[in-house]
Write a structure and sequence with these properties.
By secondary structure, this protein is an alpha+beta fold. The protein is built from 18 helices and 23 strands. Bound molecules: iron/sulfur cluster. Iron/sulfur cluster binds at residues 182, 241-243, 387, 389, 391, 393, 438-441.
């Protein structure tokens, strides 16, 4: 996943603390990545960056933030999909060139990285990390023009796959989106300042208003002359990742003009129509399954209850639990409320099942808390193909629904019954046409070409299905 943020505050009499605003922007985007966080600032003459492993609040404190001064900044919260979890892969990535330094933060995944890496190697460009983000940064930094807009536009034409990115040079801030618009990026205003963010909830937190979404293939460059938008590469229609609607993005964000909380409620309501159950209570898997559970309860007439309590402070723990706890890892995240569940037939609504190991433990937890039946309802269709666009969905062999019938999946999960929302039901609930979305992991139809080597690396069934994760 990953969250990106950028702000340009025209120098003037009311200078804003852009590093602090970026910190809060990242704080709102923390759900998109918890492995590392970083902020880069520029004061018009020099780019300075600070990044480290951990949550935004672990990486930054007052002294670190006050060391970052300038009138423009970018920030990044990372979840690793390409390249391992090491400091070198933390972002923003800084590259130096004959024109000065640039810093870049990227959400997405390129599909032609190996080709681009070899081209850069042939040009004797050194790469220090394994991330595809450094490839984008290197292409921009190596560009002969000192005009950031030209350098980014040409780079956008060279890279393939999913990218929503923010770039900072000494004099300008830029934001750009891939021609399919797979990953989101919004533009906002905070009085005369310009703000870029993965999601609108980051604008809300700092008091900025949503101007619009950056269009697929569009580039915006903001400097002392203002903001200039340009269609840098032809748009291929638009294929926003449908999982942004289902659960990645925060429910208080809007995308494609739709409030995501409302869309998720509609998914739950549709699920109740498509897959009714005889039950006493509907519960959601917090937090992301809650809106769909409320929608299911409303449409089915079965009372809604809170049967699971989430430990909100799990984050990314660096302390590995012992084997016993690991086997019951779900207990680190959830506890079941016996008073809601005991002696009841329960519908539990979740937004997705990837590998299934957590879901299986969750079903067991509900039975242990006294549920007499556990009817599992999923507000998305089965995930049957891997994602090549920046979502850590695992290899195809690890996907519980790939190559199995729903009944086989139900047996593995131990639920009384199992139903998924249909693809049509999901799309209807978004209120957007099917053509607005990437739904490749649900259909196996990818909006971009996937090179064979990449395809083969993930499209395989393992001899022994992996249960961990
Ligand atoms: S393959 Fe699935 S997870 Fe990946 S971008 Fe497309 S819809 Fe999203």
């Amino acid at each position: 996943m990953c969250g990106v943020f950028g702000i340009y505050d025209p120098p003037g009499d009311h200078d804003r603390d852009v590093a602090r605003l970026t910190y809060f922007g990242l704080y709102a985007l923390q759900h998109r990545g918890q492995e590392s966080a970083g902020i880069a600032v520029s004061d018009g003459t020099r780019v300075m960056a600070m990044k480290d492993m951990g949550l935004v609040s672990q990486v930054f404190d007052e002294p670190r933030l006050s060391g970052l001064s300038g009138h423009m900044a970018i920030g990044h919260a990372r979840y690793s999909t390409t390249g391992s979890t090491v400091w070198q892969n933390a972002q923003p990535i800084v590259r130096h060139s004959q024109h000065g330094a640039i810093a870049l933060g990227h959400n997405g995944n390129l599909t032609n990285t190996s080709e681009l890496r070899s081209e850069l190697r042939e040009r004797r460009v050194r790469l220090e990390s394994t991330s595809d983000t450094e490839v984008i940064a290197a292409l921009i930094a190596q560009h002969p023009s000192d005009d950031l807009a030209d350098a980014v536009a040409d780079t956008m034409a060279d890279v393939e796959g999913a990218f929503a990115a923010v770039v900072l040079s000494e004099r300008a801030l830029a934001g750009f989106r891939d021609p399919d618009g797979i990953r989101p990026l919004v533009v906002g205003r905070l009085d005369d300042a310009w703000v870029l963010a993965s999601e609108s909830c980051a604008l809300d937190l700092i008091g900025a208003r949503l101007e619009r979404e950056l269009r697929p293939g569009e580039l915006v460059v903001i400097d002392e002359q203002g903001a200039r938008f340009r269609q840098a590469v032809d748009r291929n229609g638009g294929s926003l990742c449908i999982f942004e609607f289902i659960y990645f993005a925060r429910p208080d964000s809007t995308m494609e003009g739709e409030a995501l909380h409302d869309a998720r409620r509609r998914m739950g309501a549709r699920l109740a129509e498509e897959a009714p159950a005889e039950a006493d209570v509907v519960i959601g898997v917090p937090d992301s399954g809650t809106p769909a559970a409320v929608g299911y309860a409303g449409r089915s007439g079965i009372p809604y209850g809170e049967g699971l309590v989430k430990n909100r402070y799990v984050g990314r723990t660096f302390i590995q639990p012992d084997q016993g706890l690991r086997d019951r890892g779900v207990k680190l995240k959830f506890n079941a409320l016996r008073t809601v569940l005991e002696g009841r037939r329960v519908v539990v609504v979740d937004d997705t099942i990837v590998r299934g190991s957590t879901t299986r433990q969750l079903v067991q937890l509900l039975f242990e808390a006294g549920a007499t039946e556990v009817h599992l309802r999923v507000s998305a269709p089965p995930i049957v193909s891997p994602c090549f666009y920046g979502i850590d969905m695992a290899d195809q062999g690890q996907l519980i629904a790939a190559g199995r019938s729903i009944e086989e999946v139900r047996q593995r999960l131990g639920a009384t019954s199992l139903s998924y929302l249909s693809l049509e039901g999901l799309t209807d609930a978004t209120n957007r046409p099917a053509g607005s979305f990437c739904r490749a992991c649900l259909t196996g139809e990818y909006p971009t070409e996937i090179p064979t080597d990449l395809r083969l690396s993930k499209l395989r069934f393992e001899a022994h299905p992996v249960e961990a994760g």
